[in-house]
Amino acid sequence: MQPAVVAAVDLGASSGRVMVGRVGRNDLGLTAVHRFANEPVDVRGTLHWNILGLYGEVLAGLRAALDAHPGLVGVGIDSWGCDFGLLGRDGRLLGSPVHYRDRRTDGVMAEVTERLGPDHLYQVTGLQMLPFNTVYQLVAAQRLGLLDAARTMLLIPDLLAYWLTGEIGAEVTNASTTQLLDVRQRGWARDLVERLGLPGRLLPRLREPGEPAGTLPPEVLGGAGPGRPIPVTVVGSHDTASAVAGVPARDERFLYISCGTWSLVGVELRRPVLTEASRLANFSNESGVDGTIRYLRNVMGLWLLQESMRTWAAAGSGQDLTALLAAAADVPPFVSVVDCDDPAFLPPGDMPARIAEICRRTGQPIPGTPAEFVRCVLDSLALAYRRTARQACELSGQEVDVIHVVGGGARNALLCQLTADACGLPVLAGPVEATALGNVLVQARAVGAIDGGLAELRSLVARKADIVRYEPRGHEAAWAAAERGLAG
Fold this sequence. Notes:
The protein is of the alpha+beta class. The chain is built from 17 helices and 21 strands.
């Protein structure tokens, strides 16, 4: 088998990138050819994604990839979940996709769950109850009359793939974040859609990672590259699905934290966990690559830090992140901690002010410097990881020996060390670009450059990726006390 050169389009909730991967049996390399910001746009009170701008950046990145690597044999696309575009009868987009942090779904989740029953929703979909799940966005859109002219709903990676190839389909790992997928059957929950009065015509044919998604003709890229069509392959198009595929685990006894704007904390299973205890703990059973289940819970993640940095920059007191993390390491631990999943933290805005208000309300000292705010955020995140990791193992029965932190958070040495301390387990940090690696690995397997299952793909990552190990420092009593204080 010859190594394959493929491009990964990897869109996060705050930034995007186009990466070129070279993959063979003992060959794994990844190069960034284009990076860009992903900034939402507020239009008269509604928060939208700048989808046309993102598409333009994707095209620019693919042109750069082909310029640098004319032998490119594939493209795969992944992104965040839940959000979608609506196509009309003629296949044209009906308006810019709405951002999941928009307030149009306020109150919708409570109404839908009261109507259908939270236990029924969970037994069918196995999904964590989050107010921005696609099902609630669709109900909100229907009330505004936005579905009347729509014929197809495409999640963000499927929409971009459609624009590149003209082929319509819905990739299953991302479809599993909609709360419209039957978790046992790995197919659309048509009865649930009908009971909600949503138009079933919106749901396209499902596709699995590794399937072809059409070809990218030269004219779409303005004639860039070798003048031949480029195959587009379905990958784990939910970015966490690709990230978990790229975890460098050496066996099944691992817990992962895919750490970026959101933190996804969980274990990999073969069957969903649909117990009442799992529902009450608000855990998700999302579809993964090769028929796996990503049993996880969303934690608010580095959004708290990112939005704090934006707030300080907008006020003219921008901070250097490296210096700020070094200063935060010298701040005493557990002076103030907050619940990272407090709904107050979900919308954009002044994050330090919200943290201060919650500290004031709970009788804790209010952080006085940026370093103290950052230490509060990181201690709080590590506590959330501790709680969620323990619940994931208890509810699933999965035993773990190690925690893999992948994504941008793997660069945050202080957070990784605090996570090891909080959880009492070694943390292996890296690769930072696990999502892009999972994307290119699935593509390379599809074109025959490598073979095997997830164990073989992960073995290649473990041999080739840069990984840093953090050992717990034995402060269990202090972490347990901080956890009790937060709960009380």
